[in-house]
Design brief:
The protein is an alpha+beta fold. The chain contains 28 helices and 15 strands. The strands form 4 sheets. It has a 5-stranded mixed β-sheet, with helices on both faces. Strands 1-2-3-4 form a 4-stranded antiparallel β-sheet. Strands 5-8-9-10 form a 4-stranded antiparallel β-sheet, covered by helices on one side. α25 runs antiparallel to α26.
Length: 657
């Protein structure tokens, strides 16, 4: 459902956030200044005694200085009451006496239909629970006894049993007034292709209800009792209620507990989650019969910024962890990643807790390793690096990993981590693999920064070039400043350009700070206006706008046409992207001079020189003025290297190999 412009602002203005939050906390009256709308309390999101949770009633936001929880009244309702965004809007609107906008009749019909299907699912939950008490469930009860599930746990998780009969649930539901079509649509029964009577999907299985974040029964997972069953675990099919790739087992309770009883733990199956919660690890979830999906990852990150993936301590568990890590690699960002806990001896969490108790599980969780460490171990495991070729293959694999990280600053940190690990791995090697040797890597971040030996004197072909001069980035910094100033002046363009803004690796710290403000604003609804953004940026933006080339830019004039501003902005992004791509390739080629002495390098240099010449003719979408002296200098450097064949001279100086 879409909301009309201004509705959320009106809602926030009508309701005091202090009143909303005050129902869940006890204010520290000594620290609070109620007259100024300044409130403090112990945080409701994590256990503490000090009042580190701050609410600014006038500005309408809260922030915890302990766990960094933050948001407005709507966010608070979502986090504390497991409400969706629209549900929190409706709750706040009722409190404010503000009528909700009229809903789309089609959406209302879909919601009504989902509500009726939830009622059918709840009837099935009660039926299966009763069946667990019957004589046909004796073997199922014995199995649960062997697994150590107490009566309290069976009650807590609403565990039931589906008798091994073809239509027992179907007859029960139809006799209670449920239409056959609704039973089939809920995924409880299936209709054969020959047009026969519907039959129960779950037969001869222990039943685990699956509930959404609001606690509504939406699906089932069934564990087969027969050894020769087609599938040991069977989940409900996709229905209007259930998308297994977008839900998690125990999602609602885990969301309420995350950060209070420890980190979020992602286990493999239902029994692992039940064992973890029983041992005190209440914020535990599991995917639903499939490998973790991208949508589930995003769900997990909404529950916790750095969840722990608990892996069975065998080869299959490690492979599963690597699949999750590779899925997460393009999605991670500063403060949003994964840690991995590898359980000992091929055990799963249920096994470990039974054998060693909660303390053993806590010890494993406390030793969880960051994702970078898992990826590094996977790349070196089973490999011997006794030749330059094998070491080069490792470098190639690491560069491929780095290239998949979309956050440029995080990529640099991963690069540094891999570099440190590489130094340790090759610490006992002689020659060029000693720590501190300048590695001839490309610009994916790997090989840059600390640990690199000081560069020698420029080669003859590079003297006077922009790479040797040390100020080659001045023009790029000016263009960065112009891009930022235009986006602050025209925030409506953020929606169109936020993907390019994310990719841009700004050179200056103050530019990166402004980039962060813009990226956060791009995710807000409604989007802040130019004055609001300027207030957030403060003097940093004022200093940037005062720069001469920015202050006179035609895109910032009040009468500038939106299409003109958009075209100019797109061109500036493209120029930076093209220029840096060319500069990176030249850096790679320059580095390759140290180790390649054949026609391959001649070809690569010639190709780069030709493309640089095309850039000069505008083939990359840039005018000659755009690249200016930088392009001329780069082209001259390439041509000089081609003409002089400096690598051959270097070979003669070094003597035969």
């Amino acid at each position: 459902m879409s909301l009309p412009p201004g509705f959320l602002d009106e809602l926030r203005n009508r309701v005091s956030i202090a009143q909303v939050v005050g129902r869940a906390v006890t204010w520290d009256l000594r620290k609070s200044n109620q007259g100024k709308g300044d409130f403090w309390a112990p945080c409701p999101f994590h256990h503490e005694k000090n009042a580190s949770f701050h609410v600014d009633d006038r500005k309408g936001f809260y922030y915890c200085f302990g766990c960094q929880a933050k948001g407005d009244a709507l966010t608070f309702l979502q986090e504390t009451q497991n409400l969706s965004f629209m549900e929190s809007v409706e709750a706040l609107a009722r409190e404010a006496g503000l009528p909700m906008p009229e809903r789309d009749p089609g959406a209302q019909a879909r919601d009504d239909k989902r509500g009726s299907l939830v009622e059918v699912m709840e009837k099935a939950v009660r039926f299966y629970r009763m069946q667990l008490m019957g004589s046909q469930a004796a073997e199922a009860r014995a199995y649960l006894d062997r697994r150590g599930l107490s009566e309290a746990q069976r009650e807590r998780w609403e565990i039931g049993f589906a008798p091994d009969q073809r239509q027992v649930l179907f007859h029960h539901l139809t006799q209670s007034g449920v239409k056959p079509e609704a039973i089939i649509e809920a995924g409880l029964c299936a209709k054969p292709g020959d047009g026969g009577a519907p039959f129960d999907r779950f037969r001869g299985r222990i039943m685990f209800p699956i509930r959404d974040a609001r606690g509504r029964a939406i699906a089932f997972g069934g564990r087969a009792m027969a050894e020769n069953a087609r599938a040991k675990y069977l989940n409900s099919p996709e229905t209007p209620l259930f998308d297994k790739g977008r839900n998690l087992f125990n999602m609602g309770p885990a969301r309420a507990a995350a950060g209070k009883t420890g980190p979020l733990i992602v286990a493999e199956g239902y029994m692992d989650v039940i064992a973890l919660v029983g041992a005190g690890f209440e914020s535990a979830v599991a995917p639903l019969g499939t490998a973790v999906t991208e949508d589930q990852l995003r769900l997990i990150w909404r529950l916790h910024d750095e969840p722990i993936i608990a892996l069975d301590g065998d080869a299959a568990g490690l492979r599963a962890g690597l699949r999750v890590a590779n899925l997460a690699l393009p999605l991670i960002s500063a403060g949003q990643s994964l840690r991995f806990a590898l359980l000992p001896g091929g055990q799963d969490p249920d096994d470990l807790i039974k054998s060693g108790g909660p303390g053993a599980m806590k010890a494993v969780i406390d030793k969880a390793v960051p994702m970078a460490k898992l990826l590094w171990e996977a790349e070196i495991q089973g490999h011997i690096f006794d030749s330059p070729e094998r070491r080069a293959a490792l470098d190639q694999r690491l560069r491929a990993l780095l290239a998949r990280i979309t956050d440029a600053h995080l990529r640099e940190h991963y690069s540094e981590e891999f570099r440190q690990q590489r130094r340790t791995l090759f610490a006992d090697k002689a020659g060029p693999f000693q720590p501190g040797f300048r590695q001839p890597y490309g610009s994916g971040g790997y090989g840059k920064g600390k640990g690199k030996a000081p560069p020698g004197l420029p080669l003859p072909g590079t003297r006077g070039s922009v790479l040797a001069g040390g100020n080659e980035g001045a023009d790029e910094e000016l263009r960065e400043a112009l891009i930022l100033a235009v986006l602050f002046a025209h925030p409506a363009l953020l929606v169109e350009f936020d993907d390019r803004l994310v990719e841009l690796d700004f050179r200056r710290d103050e530019h990166r700070a402004l980039q962060t403000i813009l990226l956060r604003a791009a995710q807000e609804e409604p989007q802040p206006d130019a004055d609001t953004l300027a207030a957030r940026a403060g003097t940093t933006l004022s200093d940037l706008r005062a720069q001469p080339h920015v202050s006179i830019a035609p895109m910032l004039r009040s009468q500038a046409e939106p299409d003109f501003v958009r075209r100019c902005l797109a061109e500036d992004f493209q120029i930076l992207r093209s220029r840096r791509a060319l500069r990176r390739e030249l850096a790679e080629l320059t580095a390759d001079v140290d180790r390649i002495a054949d026609e391959t390098l001649t070809y690569r240099l010639g190709d780069a020189s030709a493309r640089m010449d095309r850039a000069g003719r505008g083939d990359l979408g840039e005018s000659a003025t755009d690249l200016g002296e930088d392009r001329a200098s780069l082209s001259a450097q390439l041509q000089s290297m081609l003409d002089s064949q400096i690598w051959l001279k270097k070979k003669r100086r070094d003597g035969p190999t």
